[in-house]
Specification:
Layout: H1 5-65, H2 75-92, E1 115-118, E2 124-130, E3 142-153, E4 165-175
């Protein structure tokens, strides 16, 4: 029996050494894997928010484009209706419309002029906007433009991206149906 005793001791020493190296490897790999998963989540959330605000702006532009007259002087009423649709779409997707910030890009108006109406919800709706480039052949296509921006803040601890604020800008144009 004394011959078998050292063999068990050597095996137990080798087993405990491999367990220690596995713990050390896990201590190195798990934080990196966790950071990658967290990054995938936050970038996916940013993409989801951008898709939501873009869809909301499209629905708001659709309301403005479906009106019977874009140059009748009812731009403030169109802007209010469009802003209501935008906030409803955002609330349905659990995105806070109270965080919307104003953004008014430079627009070219069609002949006869147009107007831009900012709303209380910081959404800018412009009517009679030239959709086609100025150098395009043929008559210009005119429509409605809805624009705003939305802040997004990610949380990736121990990285340079922690608490970074990104401004997602939306400018949707839709051809008028009049």
């Amino acid at each position: 029996m004394p011959d078998h005793q050292p063999v068990k001791t050597i095996r137990s020493c080798l087993l405990s050494a491999s367990v220690g190296s596995q713990i050390a490897e896990a201590a190195l790999v798990l934080p990196l894997a966790f950071m990658m998963l967290l990054g995938i989540y936050w970038f996916g959330r940013a993409f989801n928010i951008y898709a939501t605000i873009n869809q909301a702006a499209q629905q708001g532009a659709r309301v403005g484009a479906a009106q019977t007259c874009a140059t009748c002087g009812n731009a403030s009423q169109l802007a209010t209706q469009g802003a209501t649709i935008v906030t409803n779409v955002m609330q349905a997707s659990h995105v806070d419309p109270a965080q919307i910030q104003p953004y008014a890009p430079v627009v070219n108006f069609c002949s006869g002029g147009g107007s831009c109406s900012p709303t209380a919800a910081n959404i800018t709706m412009c009517t009679n906007v030239r959709i086609t480039p100025p150098v395009s052949p043929g008559p210009p296509a005119c429509g409605v433009s809805v624009s705003f921006q939305y802040p997004y803040q990610s949380w990736l601890p121990f990285t340079s991206l922690n608490m970074q604020r990104v401004i997602l800008k939306v400018d949707v144009q839709m051809k008028g149906e009049y």
